[in-house]
Design brief:
Mean pLDDT: 87
Number of strands: 2
CATH class of the largest domain: Mainly Alpha
Strand content: under 5%
Number of helices: 4
CATH topology of the largest domain: Multidrug-efflux Transporter Regulator, Chain: A, Domain 2
Shape: elongated
CATH architecture of the largest domain: Orthogonal Bundle
Helix content: 55-70%
Radius of gyration: 27 Å
Order of helices and strands: EEHHHH
Largest sheet: 2 strands, antiparallel
């Protein structure tokens, strides 16, 4: 823990600054607090193998790639929706229509399961 100066400011040693920099960079890369703790724990064992680090980073990369794929689909859908709108009146707005639930056929009623 950094010591306090007479003016009640924290006085950081080089190792504190390095640790804070490590945490900041890991968070910038999207690692969770839990992952950062695990990375710090692994980093403290300098003679260990980096297989666990690689696994943690590979898992995080997979998560990021899935998010990118989902965002890419979302972007495509929003672009398509926006391009389908030709302006005009709100009652004819394709964007608003795409956000509304699909109307159900009144002839097809939902049956409730019978209770036994």
């Amino acid at each position: 823990m950094p010591q306090r100066t007479a003016g009640n400011y924290r006085s950081y040693a080089v190792e504190h600054l390095q640790r804070l920099g490590f945490i900041r960079r890991a968070r910038e890369l999207g690692f969770s607090i839990e992952d950062v703790r695990e990375l710090l724990k692994l980093a403290a064992h300098t003679e260990g193998q980096c297989q666990e680090v690689d696994q943690l980073v590979a898992q995080h990369l997979g998560t990021i790639e899935r998010k990118i794929e989902a965002l890419t689909r979302l972007r495509r859908e929003l672009r398509d929706t926006l391009s389908s709108c030709k302006g005009g009146r709100i009652s004819e707005c394709r964007v608003l229509q795409s956000l509304s639930p699909v109307p159900t056929d009144p002839k097809k009623r939902v049956r409730r399961a019978s209770r036994r």
